[in-house]
Amino acid sequence: MAVRLNHTIVACRDKRRAADFWCDIFGFAPPTRFGPFLDVEADNGVTFAFDEWESADIRPQHYAFLVDEDEFDAIFGRVVARGLDHWADPMKSQPGEINHHDGGRGVYFDDLDGHFLEIITRPYGSGG
User: Fold this and answer.
1) Residue 95, strand partner residues
2) Helix, strand, coil share of the chain (percent; to 5)
3) Runs of H (alpha helix) within the chain
4) DSSP letter, residue 31
């Protein structure tokens, strides 16, 4: 069997609010409860287990999602509709823009707990 990511914990202040945000933005199915977690499953089977932590203990993480062109349009449309700040680069020096790396499109934005989310339509280094 190949080594594949199965699940990861996403620290948040309010797991219902955070999980619902991800489900709304990315179009994921509603979260399900597993022990103390609210689980959100991505289309490739990776589970994001939302767990409530004290605000001071939350260290923002980066989560990047590879999506097709139609999914990019839908997700980016929801980002814009919510009025979320977004950037073309991880340094946040190109506000309100998207990038076109490797012949695709990409954009960065924050979730409700400061995690840095990214959607891209082409893997980095894939050319184009």
Assistant:
1) 87
2) 25, 30, 45
3) 15-26, 69-81
4) P
Q: Which of 63, 68, 71 is nearest to 47 (CA)?
A: 63
Tens digit of pLDDT for each residue in 69-106? 999 999 999 999 999 999 999 999 999 999 999 999 99
Which conformational region is residue 75 in: left (phi greater than 0), alpha (psi within -120 to 50 degrees), or beta? alpha
Phi, psi of 75 (to 5 degrees): -65, -45
Distance CA 47, CA 74 (A): 21
- Those residues whose C-beta lies under 8 Å from the C-beta of residue 76, and which sit 6 or more positions away, are 86, 98, 107, 119
How far is 125 from 97, CA to CA, in rounded Å?
21
pLDDT band at 1 (very low <50, low <70, confident <90, very high): confident
